[in-house]
Amino acid sequence: MTFRLKDLGFKTFFLHFPAVMVYILLTDSDGCGDLPRDFRFFPIAGASALLLAIIWSLIDKQRRDYNKLQYLLQITLRFFLAYTIMQYGAAKVLDVQFNSSISSLDTKVVDMQPMSVAWSFFGYSFPYEFFIGCSQIAAALLLLFRRTTTLGAIVMVTIMSNIVFVNFAFDVCVKFFSSSYLAMSLYLLVDDAGRLTNVLLLNRAVEKRTWPQLFRKKIMKKVAGLTGILLGFFAIAYPMYDTVRMREKYGVGKHTALYGVWSVDSLHHSRDSMDRALHADVSGWRQIIFEDYDNASIKSWTSTLDYLGYGVDTAKHTLHMNRTYPDTLLAINSTYRLDKDTLYLRGKHGEDSLYVRLHLRRKYFRR
Q: pLDDT higher for 286 or 233?
């Protein structure tokens, strides 16, 4: 028995794509991808789908027509892609995804990881980030309507091809997910491959696209139509709502009173040994950087970093900092005083007294 590639391909995708969609929905919120579990799941899922598709073909002997199942898979992919890409588009339009850290902008490119270089580039210019986000939102909207699916898939393939290439070129850790979105977008164009070839390459007239009828009863058609409207509304509204909520939760764009890059002018510590370690010399503090998301970092003259979380009480003029990496035991509690571009800290570094004077460096990019 010889296998028809188109039939075998459909069965493989029909078994593979739903598993990938469920996996992404369950794990995408965990942070960066390309984890060991991803390296296990995607090859195993792909191989399993192909094996099951071969068994399926042997059982039905490739005699059945699965036009309705194929159309159902296309509908599922359309709404899934619209929902997923809408999340990325909303995050860019509302300046959440690439909100550039001033710590990265203060780092030499040669000292940065490839992903940090890409993130700093995209995050530096909000108009560019906004343009990419609008393109993704437009593609998501086009996928929600049957008549504009082909155009939406073309736009999606264009966008995702660039994203996948950037992810591989700069080692961005979502290569599996972005490649899956690209493969799904390409699959939506499979049925239109002949029509697109005739229009774009051969300059021939083509017949309009037709779709199989999933339901015959009018009531079922109305239920399906209403379900599609509700799913489409959810695919657009929820990502926007969730992104706005995240923006408010993390205070994006709402800088604290100390936000910025502060260079150390002088530093005094109660213990001489700590004074030598913390003073602005070869091994000591050079800058304190207060970021959004309540993140801070202390840079030494050797470019090593202390990563800290911080909180500012503007009513009491107090500052609390707690190291988050590499040692989480260190805490800095102090009062602060701002005098134009000069910052004075007086308090405790662990159990020892600490006094620091710093000045604001205004040359850094500020959103």
A: 233
Do 282 and 202 sit in the same domain of this protein?
Answer: no
Task: Write the DSSP symbol of residue 270.
Answer: S
Same domain assignment for residues 111 and 209: yes
Q: Is 256 left (phi over 0), alpha (psi -120 to 50) or beta?
A: beta
Q: Please give the full DSSP string across 155-183, using - where no structure is assigned.
A: HHHHHHHHHHHHHHHTT-S-HHHHHHHHH
Of the three residues 202, 221, 250, the one that is the final residue of a domain is 250
Structure tokens at 204: 């021939």
- Model confidence pLDDT, tens digit, residues 177-229: 999 999 999 999 988 888 888 888 888 888 888 888 888 888 988 998 999 99
- Residue 227: exposure state from Cβ atoms within 10 A (0-12, 13-18, ≥19): exposed
Question: What per-residue confidence (pLDDT) applies to 304?
Answer: 61
Q: What's the sign of the alpha-carbon dihedral 8, 26, 150, 186?
A: negative
Helices (H), 28-63: 36-60
Range of the domain at 108: 65-250
Angle between helices 114-124 and 126-143 (to 10 degrees): 90
Token pair of 275 as six digits: 């004074």
Q: Report how far apart the first and last C-alpha atoms of the chain are (Å, whole number).
A: 64
Total domain count for the chain?
Answer: 2
Q: For 61-91, how does the pLDDT look when each residue is reduced to its tens digit (9 = 90+)? A: 767 778 899 999 999 999 999 999 999 999 9
What DSSP state is assigned to residue 207? P
Is residue 60 a part of any domain in this protein?
no
**Residue 155 included in any domain:** yes
Residue 278: count other Cβ atoms within 10 Å of its Cβ: 22
pLDDT on residue 366? 45
245 shares a domain with 288: no
Give pLDDT, residue 367: 44
Which among 256, 258, 307 is positioned nearest to 104, based on CA atoms?
307
Contacts of 110 (CB under 8 A, 6+ apart): none
